[in-house]
Design a protein that fits this description.
single chain, 313 residues, alpha+beta, Nucleotidyltransferase, domain 5, 2 domains, five-stranded mixed beta sheet, three-stranded antiparallel beta sheet, 13 strands, binds zinc ion
């Protein structure tokens, strides 16, 4: 609440919309959720909740350590989820020697292109469901407000959204886990995701989940002692020729392939990934030489200056 008031009274930055007077949470609009800070335990396929008793659950992975607190939350599709917080000892950081390294270029045409030459197709989770969503949303809008049938239609829409979300999460989790497992040094570009979501590409950008992918990579790299290097936003990964280091200023978004003045023919995304890998390695070696290789791992994203760039520049 304090935060809401500070938000309300603070000076509004240029070009920013002013937020309104703080309002209370609503039972109608906020997802139902509550937390029990103690005495919630997992017992087989049941969770024991104080004063309620045993609640049957689907356990999706075994509990490591002792449960400390539990958060109960209902998703829009009607399913309840319980998150249990546990306490455990984390193995101390070890310095992982760099034997394998990879550069990752994220985009919309392909979700990711690796400097190893591998391409991950963009599954476009949301886009593939738009027809079903449209039908479900139309059905919902026809129902009488407050009716039981409207509620059923609402759940149908929510289930579709949930499916899209689950598919995206599943895919990105598997991809990021694989990366931190197999590679000692991962280099990625610091894309201005927020800037891109203000363009026409917004839906596709949100659908691709770059931000989610990057945050997964960040914390998983930390767990696995993988070195993660974020390359500055203004590094010209796409325009740079991988073999002669010339910059091609005429490259547009539409050019999927191009030939450099030195005669080398490039695939746009692969060239970018190779450049990112090389730049990441260079930055990493520089940091090792300076003795602070680990400090950048949990780097935050600066918001300004806002530049509107095309996807996969
Ligand atoms: Zn060249």
């Amino acid at each position: 609440m304090i935060w809401a008031y500070q938000h309300f009274f603070r000076r509004v930055r240029k070009g920013e919309k002013k937020k309104g007077f703080p309002t209370f949470k609503s039972r109608k609009t906020d997802p139902p959720r509550f937390r029990i800070p103690q005495r919630v335990t997992l017992d087989g396929s049941f969770v024991s909740v104080p004063k309620i008793g045993l609640v049957r659950v689907v356990v999706h992975r075994p509990l490591e350590g002792v449960a400390k607190s539990a958060t109960f939350k209902q998703e829009a599709c009607g399913h309840w989820y319980i998150s249990l917080v546990t306490e455990q000892k984390i193995a101390p950081r070890t310095d992982r020697p760099v034997r394998t390294h990879i550069g990752v270029d994220v985009g919309l045409k392909s979700l990711a292109v690796f400097s190893t030459g591998e391409t991950i197709d963009n599954p476009r989770w949301y886009r593939t469901q738009t027809r079903k969503l449209r039908r479900a949303q139309k059905a919902l809008s026809r129902k009488v407000k407050g009716s039981n049938n409207r509620n059923k239609a609402r759940l149908a829409v929510a289930r579709l959204h949930q499916k899209v979300k689950n598919q995206r999460c599943d895919f990105l989790h598997k991809l990021s886990t694989k990366l931190v497992r197999y590679f000692d040094l991962i280099s990625i570009e610091n894309l201005n995701v927020r800037g891109l979501t203000r363009t026409k590409l917004a839906t596709s950008v949100f659908d691709a989940g770059w931000g989610m992918f990057r945050s997964m990579l960040t914390y998983k790299a930390d767990w696995a002692n993988t070195h993660l290097i974020t390359i500055g936003r203004f590094y010209p990964s796409t325009k740079l020729c991988g073999s002669c280091s010339m910059i091609n200023p005429d490259l547009t978004l539409a050019d999927r392939e191009w030939t450099c003045a030195c005669g080398v023919h490039h695939d746009r995304d692969l060239n970018a990934a190779v450049n990112i890998d090389r730049e990441g390695k260079r930055l990493f070696e520089q940091r090792v030489a300076a003795g602070y290789a680990e400090t950048e791992n949990a780097c935050g994203d600066s918001v300004s200056p806002i530049v509107t760039v095309g996807a996969g520049r």
